[in-house]
Amino acid sequence: MRAAIADVVAGMRQDGHPVSPGEAVDAARAAATVDLRDRELLRLALEATLAKDVGAQASFARSFARVFAAPRAMALDCGRGGGGGGAGRGDRGRDQSPPREPDEEAGSSGSSRPGDASAEGRRARAAHGAQAAAAERAPIRPIQFGTPGSAHPMASDVARVLPPPRRRGDRSGEESRGDPALRDLASALTIAEETRVADEAARRMARLRTALRRRTGPALRGSIDVQRALRANARFGGVPFVLPRRAPRRRPPRLLLLLDVSHSVARAAGLMLLLVGALLERLPDVRVLVFVDRLVDATGPWRRWLRGTVAPVAPPSAGIPRASRAAVRPDPRRRGRPGEGIRAGGRSFSELLASLEDLHPGAPSDYGRALYDLARVARAQRGRTVAWILGDGRSNRFDPCPWALEDAAARLDRVSWFAPEPPERWGTGDSALPSYAAHVHRLYAAHTLEALADALDDAVRRLR
Amino acid sequence: MAESAGELQARLREQRYVCPRSLAVALHLADRLGKPLLLEGPPGVGKSDVARAWAAVHGVELIRLQCYEGLDEARALYEWAYGKQLLYTQLLRERVGELLGGTGTLAAAVERLRGEADALFSDAFLLPRPLLRAITAGERVVLLIDEVDRADEAFEAFLLEVLGDFQISIPELGTVRARVRPRVIVTSNDTRDLSDALRRRCLFQHIGYPPFEEELAILEAHVPSLDSAFAAQIVRFAQAVRRSDLRKRPGIAETVDWALALAAVGAESLGGAALQETLGALLKTREDLEQVGADAARLRRG
Q: Which pTM does this prediction carry?
């Protein structure tokens, strides 16, 4: 036990939280007073002795989950919306409940969503047939996480496990540590290391652009392609035996990005905004909302950041005149603020965040408030709107308000959640991710650049 | 002393304090390890009330030190009763005259007086303030150091000695050590960063706004006469108000006050004029009152 506590302490120190030896001794004494068979009780006891502010609590939760790990799970399709590869109800493990009819689904309370059985459901049935429709109607069950002493229950609730984000062979340990795409985005990185991750992200932008490209070949439905029809029927003397059709041109949906930019998640948020920047050509209507304790519209500053025109803002602690601060480049060997190494047009992501006047980076994250505001934004949307949410769901014991997400999801075409934590940490500590998982169409693990890029690739393909 | 966190949680409930498990574990550890507990969170979520309930559970006295800007050691620790000292010197003037009568020189008089002066700087003339009272108490009282973030950093530094070793140095009397360590709760509204040194000496617990079920249980514990459907309506409204962009979000204490106010005017639901008439118990600024008053219909739906 002492070794395990030392590991937790080491993990927190690595995250930049200086746990003193005295506190480690307190933790060991606390562990001696509780029933060690109760994992939750042990976690609470160690948290009270080791995590002395809200920021340290998030670090503690990560460290504790790593050292006292629950069995591993991957990522899950939450069963809402599109079929996604033909995984239907048969893949839902222990769930033996029969699929319900659409009317029954729409009329029921709790996790059902009337919109599921309507327009999008009809489109999906036409496109993918009965199997996809069955998946569409599948009732959503809330997922229970982290019962003390039990096996990780997600494994049985996962509808479809995404392939693990390791396509480059089964490298692990030292070898994978050198690959910037496989670095845990929440780990402590120097500015130079973070820059390497961002450079790797830039290399993946082309693939994302391709994912959104409209299909230009002949289609089964749509209007007749006159030019192709003339060419194809020339050999029949102009008699129209073949009528090639052009895929209907669909207006791309409006994309709402809701990003937690608090300290532990800011790096993943920066990379996501960098990657989504690659889609702007084909997906012009993107709105960026960032939050720590409240929602701030960052659409304009984000676009200016991509163009390299974000106003320079330096930390107020630097005793350098404002004009010359922008010229000072941080030492790449030191650990900077998350986002200092993610640059677009010469400005870092942390500078972008600092330029947002209404954003309070030091405040504790309040997901309930942000999702409540998102629901208000969703109510004002007209036309197809898709939301992508990035966050660890750690709401610092504030009310997580999952009903607000449910309300927003009922008004939007599709909601996907990108969780920048490994799946084994979902639902641990103050994470409200399980309560959110029931209300989103898809929940992605996005804890490494590779996982994030894969998740975005999948989400983009579902926009078409 | 409660045998387990679960038992403590149940006993706090008997004292009408609905306590989440994490807080019960922290209190239990504070008791077992003899460490102060730092509670941080927004105002009105029950940080100070924990101390009251904890003291009641153990049947001991609650000693409270309310912090404020300018609070110094004299107010927190001890003072000499100057008035009393002066009165005694006046009353004992003749006795002092007799005492010094035989001395031939001034130096000899001062020397003789020095031997007797300590009588005026003894326990009889000491006014113990909350910290000293807690340390010299014969039992494990509960010491509440409330809103420590309002005090100056110098006072916070002074607290380190008290919270670290539970001892106080009084120049005239020497060092006073606690016979038994008091149970200490330090609260902070997080209006400024506390020093790492203070945090290190304490166990830590953050108390936020409770979820619906917990707040409903709190309300039912404090206002048992309230109809449960009406109580749920009140809590739902309070939680919706808390999510609005207000200057001052209402805490649990305000929810309880509001419920009491509604009960006092005989309201049985949030409809009608009762809501507008009693909102002042829930909201404490004019802007918030106007905003919520205008939006009441939507907020009533939760």
A: 0.50
